[in-house]
Amino acid sequence: HRHLLGIEPLHPEEIRTILDLADQYVDLNRRAVKHADALAGLTQINMFFENSTRTQASFELAGKRLGADVMNMAMQASSIKKGETLIDTALTLNAMHPDLLVVRHPHSGAVDLLAQKVNCAVLNAGDGRHEHPTQALLDALTIRRAKGRLHRLNIAICGDIAHSRVARSNIILLGKMENRVRLVGPPTLMPSQVGELGVEVYEDMREGLKDVDVVMMLRLQRERMDGGFIPSEREYYHRYGLDAEKLSHAREDAIVMHPGPMNRGVEIDGTIADDINRSVIQEQVEMGVAVRMAAMDLLARNLRAADRPAGVMA
Ligand code: CP
Protein backbone atom coordinates (compact mmCIF):
# COMPACT_ATOMS: atom_id res chain seq x y z
CA HIS A 1 0.00 0.00 0.00
CA ARG A 2 1.10 3.56 -0.67
CA HIS A 3 -1.05 5.07 2.11
CA LEU A 4 -2.67 4.04 5.38
CA LEU A 5 -6.16 5.47 4.99
CA GLY A 6 -8.19 2.85 6.83
CA ILE A 7 -8.38 -0.73 8.08
CA GLU A 8 -10.89 -1.65 5.35
CA PRO A 9 -8.30 -2.35 2.58
CA LEU A 10 -5.91 -4.34 4.83
CA HIS A 11 -5.68 -8.14 4.76
CA PRO A 12 -5.34 -10.02 8.08
CA GLU A 13 -1.75 -10.92 7.12
CA GLU A 14 -0.91 -7.24 6.59
CA ILE A 15 -2.39 -6.39 9.98
CA ARG A 16 -0.23 -9.09 11.57
CA THR A 17 2.85 -7.72 9.79
CA ILE A 18 2.28 -4.24 11.26
CA LEU A 19 1.70 -5.65 14.76
CA ASP A 20 4.76 -7.92 14.56
CA LEU A 21 6.97 -4.99 13.58
CA ALA A 22 5.45 -2.86 16.36
CA ASP A 23 6.37 -5.63 18.81
CA GLN A 24 9.99 -4.99 17.84
CA TYR A 25 9.65 -1.27 18.57
CA VAL A 26 8.49 -1.92 22.15
CA ASP A 27 9.54 -5.35 23.36
CA LEU A 28 7.71 -7.56 25.84
CA ASN A 29 9.81 -6.09 28.68
CA ARG A 30 8.42 -2.69 27.64
CA ARG A 31 11.79 -1.44 26.37
CA ALA A 32 11.06 1.07 23.64
CA VAL A 33 13.35 1.73 20.67
CA LYS A 34 14.19 5.44 20.86
CA HIS A 35 16.84 5.81 18.19
CA ALA A 36 16.65 4.10 14.81
CA ASP A 37 17.15 5.20 11.22
CA ALA A 38 14.23 3.65 9.31
CA LEU A 39 12.98 7.15 8.38
CA ALA A 40 16.38 8.86 8.15
CA GLY A 41 16.41 11.45 5.39
CA LEU A 42 12.61 11.55 5.19
CA THR A 43 10.34 14.47 6.02
CA GLN A 44 7.12 13.92 7.97
CA ILE A 45 4.46 16.64 8.21
CA ASN A 46 1.63 16.37 10.76
CA MET A 47 -1.55 18.27 9.85
CA PHE A 48 -4.19 18.12 12.58
CA PHE A 49 -7.40 20.01 11.78
CA GLU A 50 -8.99 18.63 14.98
CA ASN A 51 -7.69 18.57 18.54
CA SER A 52 -5.46 15.69 19.60
CA THR A 53 -3.20 14.73 22.47
CA ARG A 54 -2.33 11.05 21.99
CA THR A 55 -2.34 10.71 18.20
CA GLN A 56 -0.38 13.84 17.41
CA ALA A 57 2.19 13.35 20.19
CA SER A 58 2.74 9.69 19.31
CA PHE A 59 3.06 10.30 15.55
CA GLU A 60 5.60 13.02 16.31
CA LEU A 61 7.58 10.81 18.71
CA ALA A 62 7.34 7.83 16.34
CA GLY A 63 8.80 9.88 13.48
CA LYS A 64 11.59 11.32 15.63
CA ARG A 65 12.50 7.91 17.11
CA LEU A 66 12.93 6.61 13.56
CA GLY A 67 15.08 9.53 12.48
CA ALA A 68 12.63 11.53 10.32
CA ASP A 69 12.56 15.31 10.16
CA VAL A 70 9.15 16.00 11.71
CA MET A 71 7.15 19.19 11.32
CA ASN A 72 3.87 19.88 13.12
CA MET A 73 1.71 22.34 11.19
CA ALA A 74 -0.16 24.68 13.57
CA MET A 75 -3.44 24.51 11.66
CA GLN A 76 -5.10 27.16 13.87
CA ALA A 77 -2.42 29.61 12.70
CA SER A 78 -2.40 28.47 9.06
CA SER A 79 -3.82 30.09 5.93
CA ILE A 80 -6.86 27.77 6.24
CA LYS A 81 -8.07 30.60 8.51
CA LYS A 82 -7.83 32.96 5.51
CA GLY A 83 -10.06 30.76 3.37
CA GLU A 84 -7.51 28.47 1.73
CA THR A 85 -9.02 25.06 1.00
CA LEU A 86 -7.79 21.76 2.38
CA ILE A 87 -6.62 20.68 -1.08
CA ASP A 88 -4.74 23.93 -1.79
CA THR A 89 -3.07 23.68 1.62
CA ALA A 90 -2.10 20.07 0.90
CA LEU A 91 -0.77 20.90 -2.58
CA THR A 92 1.28 23.74 -1.08
CA LEU A 93 2.88 21.43 1.46
CA ASN A 94 3.29 18.71 -1.17
CA ALA A 95 5.42 21.13 -3.21
CA MET A 96 7.91 21.14 -0.31
CA HIS A 97 8.53 17.40 -0.88
CA PRO A 98 7.35 15.72 2.30
CA ASP A 99 7.52 11.92 2.29
CA LEU A 100 4.92 11.24 4.96
CA LEU A 101 1.81 13.32 5.61
CA VAL A 102 -0.19 12.55 8.78
CA VAL A 103 -3.67 14.07 8.63
CA ARG A 104 -6.61 14.39 11.02
CA HIS A 105 -9.74 16.08 9.71
CA PRO A 106 -13.32 16.50 10.99
CA HIS A 107 -14.88 15.39 7.68
CA SER A 108 -15.22 11.72 6.75
CA GLY A 109 -13.41 11.06 3.47
CA ALA A 110 -11.29 14.25 3.59
CA VAL A 111 -8.05 12.31 4.09
CA ASP A 112 -8.78 9.93 1.18
CA LEU A 113 -9.45 12.93 -1.06
CA LEU A 114 -6.22 14.58 -0.03
CA ALA A 115 -4.25 11.37 -0.64
CA GLN A 116 -5.34 11.46 -4.29
CA LYS A 117 -3.77 14.92 -4.74
CA VAL A 118 -0.31 14.46 -3.25
CA ASN A 119 2.64 12.27 -4.18
CA CYS A 120 3.75 11.30 -0.69
CA ALA A 121 2.46 8.61 1.69
CA VAL A 122 -0.62 9.72 3.63
CA LEU A 123 -1.57 8.34 7.04
CA ASN A 124 -5.10 8.88 8.31
CA ALA A 125 -4.98 10.10 11.93
CA GLY A 126 -8.81 10.14 12.10
CA ASP A 127 -11.35 11.50 9.61
CA GLY A 128 -14.80 12.44 10.90
CA ARG A 129 -16.69 9.33 11.93
CA HIS A 130 -15.09 7.25 9.18
CA GLU A 131 -11.78 5.61 10.25
CA HIS A 132 -8.92 5.92 12.76
CA PRO A 133 -6.73 3.06 11.55
CA THR A 134 -3.71 3.49 13.83
CA GLN A 135 -6.05 3.52 16.85
CA ALA A 136 -7.53 0.16 15.83
CA LEU A 137 -4.01 -1.21 15.26
CA LEU A 138 -2.77 -0.06 18.66
CA ASP A 139 -5.89 -1.49 20.28
CA ALA A 140 -5.26 -4.79 18.47
CA LEU A 141 -1.64 -4.89 19.67
CA THR A 142 -2.74 -4.14 23.25
CA ILE A 143 -5.33 -6.94 23.12
CA ARG A 144 -2.88 -9.40 21.54
CA ARG A 145 -0.33 -8.74 24.28
CA ALA A 146 -2.84 -8.91 27.14
CA LYS A 147 -4.73 -11.98 25.89
CA GLY A 148 -1.98 -13.78 24.00
CA ARG A 149 -4.08 -13.91 20.84
CA LEU A 150 -6.18 -11.74 18.55
CA HIS A 151 -8.85 -14.21 17.44
CA ARG A 152 -11.88 -15.94 18.94
CA LEU A 153 -12.27 -13.30 21.64
CA ASN A 154 -15.57 -11.79 22.81
CA ILE A 155 -15.20 -8.04 22.67
CA ALA A 156 -17.77 -5.45 23.77
CA ILE A 157 -17.53 -1.93 22.33
CA CYS A 158 -19.68 0.30 24.52
CA GLY A 159 -21.26 3.73 24.30
CA ASP A 160 -21.44 6.26 21.50
CA ILE A 161 -20.83 3.96 18.53
CA ALA A 162 -22.68 6.15 16.01
CA HIS A 163 -20.17 9.01 16.11
CA SER A 164 -17.03 6.94 16.61
CA ARG A 165 -14.36 6.35 13.98
CA VAL A 166 -12.52 4.36 16.66
CA ALA A 167 -15.47 1.96 16.89
CA ARG A 168 -15.74 1.67 13.10
CA SER A 169 -12.05 0.86 12.58
CA ASN A 170 -12.11 -1.58 15.51
CA ILE A 171 -15.25 -3.36 14.26
CA ILE A 172 -13.59 -3.85 10.86
CA LEU A 173 -10.24 -5.00 12.27
CA LEU A 174 -11.61 -7.30 14.97
CA GLY A 175 -14.03 -8.84 12.47
CA LYS A 176 -11.22 -9.51 9.97
CA MET A 177 -9.31 -11.31 12.74
CA GLU A 178 -12.35 -13.51 13.51
CA ASN A 179 -13.44 -12.18 16.87
CA ARG A 180 -17.03 -11.85 18.11
CA VAL A 181 -17.84 -8.17 18.46
CA ARG A 182 -20.78 -6.85 20.50
CA LEU A 183 -21.96 -3.27 20.40
CA VAL A 184 -23.49 -2.04 23.66
CA GLY A 185 -25.36 1.25 24.01
CA PRO A 186 -28.64 3.11 23.60
CA PRO A 187 -30.33 2.69 20.17
CA THR A 188 -29.96 6.46 19.64
CA LEU A 189 -26.16 6.05 19.65
CA MET A 190 -26.02 3.06 17.29
CA PRO A 191 -25.06 3.60 13.63
CA SER A 192 -27.99 3.49 11.21
CA GLN A 193 -26.53 0.51 9.29
CA VAL A 194 -25.73 -1.55 12.38
CA GLY A 195 -27.40 -4.62 10.84
CA GLU A 196 -24.72 -4.77 8.12
CA LEU A 197 -21.72 -4.73 10.46
CA GLY A 198 -21.69 -8.42 11.43
CA VAL A 199 -21.94 -7.64 15.16
CA GLU A 200 -24.34 -8.40 18.01
CA VAL A 201 -26.19 -5.40 19.48
CA TYR A 202 -27.16 -4.98 23.14
CA GLU A 203 -29.13 -2.17 24.77
CA ASP A 204 -28.62 -3.55 28.28
CA MET A 205 -25.03 -3.12 29.48
CA ARG A 206 -25.06 -6.06 31.91
CA GLU A 207 -26.26 -8.46 29.21
CA GLY A 208 -23.79 -6.99 26.72
CA LEU A 209 -20.83 -7.46 29.05
CA LYS A 210 -21.71 -11.02 30.08
CA ASP A 211 -18.58 -13.20 29.76
CA VAL A 212 -16.66 -10.85 27.44
CA ASP A 213 -12.84 -10.89 27.34
CA VAL A 214 -12.45 -7.24 26.43
CA VAL A 215 -14.51 -4.16 27.40
CA MET A 216 -13.81 -1.18 25.16
CA MET A 217 -15.38 2.08 26.38
CA LEU A 218 -16.03 5.16 24.23
CA ARG A 219 -16.52 8.84 24.97
CA LEU A 220 -19.83 10.60 24.26
CA GLN A 221 -18.83 12.70 21.22
CA ARG A 222 -21.00 15.74 21.85
CA GLU A 223 -19.14 17.73 19.19
CA ARG A 224 -20.62 15.42 16.54
CA MET A 225 -24.19 15.35 17.90
CA ASP A 226 -25.25 18.53 16.04
CA GLY A 227 -28.65 19.12 17.61
CA GLY A 228 -29.61 15.44 17.80
CA PHE A 229 -30.27 13.40 20.93
CA ILE A 230 -27.86 14.23 23.77
CA PRO A 231 -28.32 12.10 26.89
CA SER A 232 -27.90 13.68 30.34
CA GLU A 233 -24.56 12.70 31.87
CA ARG A 234 -26.18 11.41 35.09
CA GLU A 235 -28.65 9.20 33.30
CA TYR A 236 -25.97 8.00 30.87
CA TYR A 237 -23.54 7.11 33.67
CA HIS A 238 -26.31 5.25 35.50
CA ARG A 239 -27.13 3.07 32.46
CA TYR A 240 -23.85 2.87 30.53
CA GLY A 241 -21.02 4.14 32.73
CA LEU A 242 -18.56 1.33 33.43
CA ASP A 243 -18.39 0.74 37.21
CA ALA A 244 -17.33 -2.26 39.28
CA GLU A 245 -20.82 -3.74 39.37
CA LYS A 246 -21.33 -3.65 35.59
CA LEU A 247 -17.78 -4.92 35.00
CA SER A 248 -18.48 -7.90 37.30
CA HIS A 249 -20.64 -9.35 34.46
CA ALA A 250 -17.58 -9.64 32.19
CA ARG A 251 -15.05 -12.46 32.56
CA GLU A 252 -12.95 -12.24 35.69
CA ASP A 253 -9.85 -11.61 33.57
CA ALA A 254 -11.50 -9.15 31.17
CA ILE A 255 -9.42 -6.10 30.30
CA VAL A 256 -10.80 -2.55 30.17
CA MET A 257 -9.84 -0.26 27.31
CA HIS A 258 -10.52 3.36 26.38
CA PRO A 259 -8.98 5.22 23.41
CA GLY A 260 -9.06 8.55 25.30
CA PRO A 261 -9.77 11.32 25.85
CA MET A 262 -11.73 9.94 28.79
CA ASN A 263 -14.59 11.59 30.66
CA ARG A 264 -14.43 10.12 34.15
CA GLY A 265 -17.85 9.77 35.77
CA VAL A 266 -19.61 9.86 32.36
CA GLU A 267 -18.67 6.68 30.46
CA ILE A 268 -16.25 5.23 33.04
CA ASP A 269 -15.69 5.29 36.79
CA GLY A 270 -12.26 6.75 37.59
CA THR A 271 -11.35 3.86 39.92
CA ILE A 272 -11.90 1.34 37.08
CA ALA A 273 -9.82 3.45 34.68
CA ASP A 274 -6.98 3.53 37.23
CA ASP A 275 -7.16 -0.14 38.28
CA ILE A 276 -3.91 -1.58 36.95
CA ASN A 277 -5.27 -5.11 37.31
CA ARG A 278 -8.04 -4.43 34.78
CA SER A 279 -7.33 -1.26 32.84
CA VAL A 280 -4.86 -1.28 29.93
CA ILE A 281 -5.49 2.36 29.01
CA GLN A 282 -1.87 3.42 29.55
CA GLU A 283 -0.63 0.36 27.60
CA GLN A 284 -2.80 1.53 24.70
CA VAL A 285 -0.94 4.84 24.66
CA GLU A 286 2.39 3.01 24.85
CA MET A 287 1.45 0.71 21.95
CA GLY A 288 0.37 3.77 19.98
CA VAL A 289 3.95 4.96 19.54
CA ALA A 290 5.15 1.48 18.48
CA VAL A 291 2.30 0.92 16.01
CA ARG A 292 2.84 4.32 14.39
CA MET A 293 6.57 3.60 14.10
CA ALA A 294 5.73 0.30 12.39
CA ALA A 295 3.16 1.84 10.03
CA MET A 296 5.51 4.63 8.92
CA ASP A 297 8.46 2.25 8.63
CA LEU A 298 6.48 -0.04 6.30
CA LEU A 299 5.19 2.86 4.18
CA ALA A 300 8.73 4.24 3.91
CA ARG A 301 9.95 0.85 2.66
CA ASN A 302 7.23 1.00 -0.03
CA LEU A 303 8.28 4.54 -0.96
CA ARG A 304 11.87 3.43 -1.36
CA ALA A 305 10.86 0.32 -3.31
CA ALA A 306 8.78 2.49 -5.67
CA ASP A 307 12.04 4.26 -6.54
CA ARG A 308 10.61 7.73 -6.67
CA PRO A 309 12.33 10.32 -8.86
CA ALA A 310 15.41 12.07 -7.51
CA GLY A 311 14.55 15.13 -5.50
CA VAL A 312 11.20 13.82 -4.31
CA MET A 313 12.80 11.83 -1.55
CA ALA A 314 15.81 13.31 0.17
N1 CP B 1 -7.48 8.30 20.86
C1 CP B 1 -7.24 9.48 20.25
O1 CP B 1 -7.35 9.61 19.01
O2 CP B 1 -6.88 10.48 21.10
P1 CP B 1 -6.51 12.00 20.67
O3 CP B 1 -7.79 12.62 20.14
O4 CP B 1 -6.01 12.67 21.92
O5 CP B 1 -5.47 11.91 19.58
From TrEMBL:
Gene Ontology CC, one term: cytosol
Broad class of enzyme this protein falls into: transferase
Keywords assigned by UniProt, alphabetized: Pyrimidine biosynthesis, Transferase
Binding-site residues for carbamoyl phosphate, renumbered to this chain: 54-55, 104, 132, 135, 260-261
Domain Aspartate/ornithine carbamoyltransferase carbamoyl-P binding intervals: 2-144
GO process annotations (BP): 'de novo' pyrimidine nucleobase biosynthetic process; 'de novo' UMP biosynthetic process; amino acid metabolic process
Catalyzed chemical reaction(s): carbamoyl phosphate + L-aspartate = N-carbamoyl-L-aspartate + phosphate + H(+)
Pathway(s) annotated for this protein in UniProt: Pyrimidine metabolism; UMP biosynthesis via de novo pathway; (S)-dihydroorotate from bicarbonate: step 2/3
Superkingdom per UniProt: Bacteria
Residue sites binding L-aspartate per the record: 82, 165, 219
Molecular function GO terms recorded: amino acid binding; aspartate carbamoyltransferase activity
EC number: 2.1.3.2
Annotated Aspartate/ornithine carbamoyltransferase Asp/Orn-binding domain residues: 153-298
Family per record: Belongs to the aspartate/ornithine carbamoyltransferase superfamily. ATCase family.
Function per UniProt: Catalyzes the condensation of carbamoyl phosphate and aspartate to form carbamoyl aspartate and inorganic phosphate, the committed step in the de novo pyrimidine nucleotide biosynthesis pathway. Reversibly catalyzes the transfer of the carbamoyl group from carbamoyl phosphate (CP) to the N(epsilon) atom of ornithine (ORN) to produce L-citrulline.
HAMAP family: Asp_carb_tr
Entries under PANTHER family matching the protein: ASPARTATE CARBAMOYLTRANSFERASE, ORNITHINE CARBAMOYLTRANSFERASE, MITOCHONDRIAL
Quaternary state and interactors: Heterododecamer (2C3:3R2) of six catalytic PyrB chains organized as two trimers (C3), and six regulatory PyrI chains organized as three dimers (R2).
Name of the protein described by the UniProt record: Aspartate carbamoyltransferase
Source species of the chain: Pseudoruegeria aquimaris
Gene: pyrB
